[in-house]
Structures
1.
Amino acid sequence: MAQPIINIKGITRDFPLGNEIVKVLKGIDLQINKGEYVALMGPSGSGKSTLMNLLGCLDTATSGTYVLNGKDVSIMSDDELATIRNKEIGFVFQTFNLLPRTTALDNVALPMVYAGHKKPERVERATEVLTQVGLSDRMDHKPNQLSGGQRQRVAVGRALVNKPSIILADEPTGNLDSKTSVEIMNLFNDIHANGNTVILVTHEEDIAAYAHRVIRLRDGIIESDTYTKEGSSKDTTTA
């Protein structure tokens, strides 16, 4: 049987608040296989943002283990986590997080700079990815010369550029109108169809409906884990 690309066991995350300890994640077990398309949902305070930060190696757990693509990241140093983030995970954020005075091409190529690739290689790969996301005619444009949807396409291109194991998208349509949201979600469908593992964090049911598996958190635990008809008929909903 294939090894899960994400394998989390007994993950907890506590945060100090004054003299108290707030338990945000209360023992999460989660496996995600390569090539899955997963939506992570939950109301405010459910722990979904905390779990996303852990999945993205932006934070570390209080206890438990996290094996990402065969590597135990729960025991890594900050420097090791930074390397894993750049190599294994492509991030897409609600606010795009683009460098404002930098062209689309250079924004997309940026993770390759940190990965130590030479400029000709960076330009070639960034050009390839911008073409893939439908922006071959906007490579020299800066973010303020692009629409919201185009900016998010640049952000998606940047997430793809290092050929990561996982695309992790946090409310990727949160700042977009309905029509543009559909276009961006169709782009994620294409990315998934190309073999990428995609994890969406969203509070919107219509966005989650694009995924093939929906994991719902409540009060720091997984409340339900449901496979839709597109992904599988399996349903592991808990009572």
2.
Amino acid sequence: MKKHRKIGLALGGGGARGFAHIGVMKVLEKEKITPDIIVGTSIGSIVGGAFASGMKIKEVEKKAETFLESDLYQSSELKAMGDAESGAEQRLSRRIQSYFMTKIRLAQALYRPSILQIDEMQEFVNFFIPDIQIEETIIPFRAVATDLRNGECVVLKKGSLRRSILASSAVPGALPPVDINGRQLSDGGIICNVPVQHLFEEGAQEVIAIAVDRDIALCSELQTAVDIYVRAGEIQGFHLEKYSLENADIVIRPQIGAIHWTDFSRSKELISLGEAAAMKNLSEIQRLAKRIYKRDLMDGLKRSAKKLFGVTPSRSG
């Protein structure tokens, strides 16, 4: 039997752009809106999983700050990719080096399943996520992944929290698929970038969705076959996501602009953008809080009346 839960929170994928989730959730926490269930895709599963495991959102923010200052991140291939994409290196010698490293990564991708090693992403996940089972989270949590063999969307609700999130975050091409129970699982964003529908399937009555993909209207110059291929994927994903978001009660979309998914160096800016987007939707959020409060009050009155008199008060009374 499906359990009814009041508020569901859907956290979308988007790589580094997912730090904007933290900003949105800071506002929700301030408004005393706590989700009864969280479903996340990719970076949304990392932020959502950390929060669901019992961390306060301030702790998640501090974790992000500490990670970006750590030797683990500073020496990582992920940072090197982010620097190249963001144009962080200003000197000519560094720009030339970044250019050739990009070409080398693309060449490597022809002979192995991913550009990045899975170990780096595993360390990233381990830094944020405790070594527990999904069933042990404080807030019920689900991670969304894609089965590369049969093309199905997979909602992970049992087993290792870390491994489930790793599978949900395995961006195709950038990271190899993750084997869970014989299934080759990759990023949930292939099919479902903002997992709204899965919250309703889990019994959520009200859904807040946070989409952190970059502005589809922004397009850099298309010079190569890879540029065109990536752009086609962005357009396809945008329209799939638009369809998914139609059923959400509140959709919060931070104005990410053209920030690249590997550009973790802009984490503070992204968190601020998330806060700004939530504040823009504050009246809707507050109306949702009042609606839930009234519903809880009515449910409490019904329970009290049934307990005392064996009757249920009518809505018109």
3.
Amino acid sequence: MQLIIADKQAITQIGMRFLAQQAHLTERCVDDKVELIEALKKWNDAIVVLDYTLFDINDAAELTILCQRFPKSQWILFSDELSLDFVKTTVGCLTQISIVLKDASLAEIKEALSRAMKGDRYVCQRVVELLLVPPQQEKGEENKLTKTETEILKEIALGFTTREIAEKRFSSFHTINTHRKNIFRKLGVNNVHEATKYALRAGLIDSAEYYI
């Protein structure tokens, strides 16, 4: 069985390659959506480890299309944070999807991989707890961005990478990455595409400024 690693972080690639070898899987890393689709055409029953927040999948609808196009594939979403609405959509509609957050234990990561090899789904404990939060508690935090977060959101929407924003603002990569995670969490979005749509709707950037 083939493991496709759709995650650009070197530490994740190394870790997943190691687990693949232990599970007697062959593995391949892909850098973008085009390479991912080509790999799935070759191995349509592969297990895909996907960092949804950093990879170039636009939204849940596009992920749904990919799952429908390759119905024999299994997907493990392996990300830092995912919004509650996104988790509900994917868990509720896509039985091919497992979810493991990157702060999960090694035992949970191994279990997700083992379940995917059997064609079963796995959801890590922290995501289960998120899903079990009573509805009245879901909106306990106001989604208001600070001035700095708003400026960084605009730069993200205009196509600047985390490293480029850090250089422009004379900040560390870690600081800007933390702001990015906080922005996504407050807005209930998961990636740059979703954040950009929010920025356009909110009038934070002019549509004439925006480019792909």
4.
Amino acid sequence: MFWRRKSVALALGGGGARGLAHIGVLRVLEREGIPIDLIVGTSVGALVGGAYACGITADELERRAEEYLNSSEFRSSAMKGLEAAYRGGEEGLGEKIRTYVKNRFLVVQAMFKPGILSNQDFQKTISYFLPDIEIEETRTPFRAVATDLVSGQQIVLSRGSLRQAVMASCAVPGAIEPLKEGERLLSNGGITCLIPCSVARQEGADIIIAVAVDRGISRETEIRTVVDIYHRVSEIMGEKLKALELSGADVVISPEVGDLHWTEFSQAMNLIEIGERAAREKLVDMRLAISPFRKWLRFVGRRIATGSRSYK
């Protein structure tokens, strides 16, 4: 009897620096021979997923990430400045003063610009990781998810410049300038679709492996000001949207990223290891999901769990 392997899609979610855990997940999928027929990414998931779809291995992605984050270009960039401004922990008096001033400077900048980081500046980061090709030319079919700030609609980018599509998907509101495209003003995909499981399903995937690298709702946050309330409301809405998306996944991989802020790129190598560990823990689930005998295996598993010896 002819058997067609079910198509498998990888849905990589947004989360800024936490998305470096995606590299660890990809390494495990590579080593274990888990087939991937489609990659859909939101924000940093689009950056890592787009690079992988081009044929760049997980090991090469790790090397590029380490090299870039240690480069003088990154260390002097506004992105590195954001990490310093948001960083917690113990600091000396001089460092506290510099962080305070830098944080206030970034806030003032945001009052007069569409983003702290311009398209031109962020393009350098995108170009470092992605080749200058069209989306249609990737080795593995790829989709990037963005949001049109004009219409409020979710935009699935499936053709045209790969770099431009990923840049639009990664444009964190306030931090990175939205990308103008005709009548549309494209911003971060996480606004409407933090983990793009629904997009993967719309694109025809039979099996969806989702990777969630967001922080979720913090229980320790104090809610005292208008800003605190605004952030909490945003977290709650995001969590509800995430749960809705993940309900459509066959396997969910959730690296334990803790309470890391999206700007903490200095934790890159730790995050890659965390992603690896989370993926290894889900290997059985992934193999079961893609197995042509999964219904039979689940049936047998239930019978064994209930202690029955009859398989009639």
